[in-house]
Amino acid sequence: MTRRDETYAVSVPGASSFPCSQGDTLLRAALRAGVPAAYECNSGGCGTCKFVVEDGEVAVLQEEPAGLTARDRRKGKQLACQTVPLGDLTAQLLLNPQWPSGHARPRRFSGEVTAVRPLTHDLVEITIVTDRPADFLPGQFAMVGLDGVAGGPAHTERAYSMSNLANPEGIWQFQVKRVPDGAVSGRVTGLTRGAVVHLDGPYGNAHLQDTDRDIVCVAGGSGLAPMVSVARGLAVRPDASRRRLDFFYGGRACRDRCAQEFVAEISGALSQVRFVEVLSAADEDDWDGPRGYVHEALAAAGPAELADRDIYIAGPPPMTDAVVRMLVLEWRIPVEQIHYDRFF
Ligand code: FES
């Protein structure tokens, strides 16, 4: 049933019902209402938000998202982040019983690009200013959308992590990698001052935790932005001068290097900072530092000093998988100390 107010009622057995604006996804509507729906990527890749429609009609943003297997489809499962209710709905939405406190509810708003700064040959820092405070936790991400890109929301927006910290001035900073043929990333990296950008956020669970543990950041490729935000978040804590940070960064070649700038920026605020940078395909003549992959650098550091830390991970899925497998299976780190959002 379509209503004039273009809002539908979604009922979740065992939880309160919530409104869903026409065109919004089931997941985003739940999070906007404060319903602790389980999710990670908000982009159709991880499969965490699988659910079943009990009653009602829906449309999907992607026909065959990576997060849904053929078996899932045969069982009638769908992804809440890729499902748009077409009327009132009853859904067996998966809830997260350990929903963390302190998350701002995601909202949609627009902002203006105020600065574009090249960081490397294919990585650009974009600064966007909005007319409301930037409210998010270090390590979270937002959906960045542009007008004029063909297709629905699955094609016109992408998830990018903020590299800065929450602030009352409404400043959001992203590090965007130019992807060949990327409909959105190609446009985002080509933005100039004054361009209007649509934001929807914040999202993400792999944010800086409120614990006394020292931290380890493990970043690969475009996973640098959330790790920079987490490190910056640690550096402004009241007890920062007693906290230690170990920052591992893995890139391909010398032309990918920029992480050192951000780690240097915060190192004076912390008691101890170790920066380990490793390159997997550096030219022999250009680089005399360690070679290989970031999970190998972490393995070489060993668990003796790191096993009692909070460990944050962001980067390509194979890197994240390799690091998490080692931490859990070999180092036996408790899962509550390991923080990452899966993107595919
Ligand atoms: Fe829906 Fe990842 S949150 S697939």
> Which molecules are bound besides the chains?
FE2/S2 (inorganic) cluster
Assign the CATH superfamily of the largest domain. Answer: Nucleotide-binding domain of ferredoxin-NADP reductase (FNR) module
Q: What is the level 1 CATH name of the largest domain?
A: Alpha Beta
CATH 2nd-level architecture of the largest domain: 3-Layer(aba) Sandwich
Q: How does the major sheet shape up?
A: 6 strands, antiparallel
- pLDDT average, as an integer? 91
Beta-strand content estimate: 25-35%
CATH topology call of the largest domain? Rossmann fold
Low-confidence stretches: none
Amino-to-carboxy terminus distance: 35 Å
SSE class: alpha/beta
Describe the global form. Answer: globular
Helix segment tally: 9
**Lateral arrangement of strands in the main beta sheet:** 11-10-13-8-9-12
Order of helices and strands: EEHEEHEEEEEEHEEHEEHEHEHHEHE
Total strand count, please?
18
Could you estimate the helical fraction of the residues in percent?
10-25%
Rg for CA atoms = 20 Å
**How many structural domains in the coordinates?**
3
GO molecular function: 2 iron, 2 sulfur cluster binding; oxidoreductase activity
Pfam family, one: NAD_binding_1
Cofactor: FAD
InterPro entries: 2Fe-2S_ferredoxin-like_sf (IPR036010), 2Fe-2S_ferredoxin-type (IPR001041), 2Fe2S_fd_BS (IPR006058), Beta-grasp_dom_sf (IPR012675), Cbr1-like_FAD-bd_dom (IPR008333), FAD-bd_FR_type (IPR017927), FNR_nucleotide-bd (IPR039261), MRET (IPR050415)
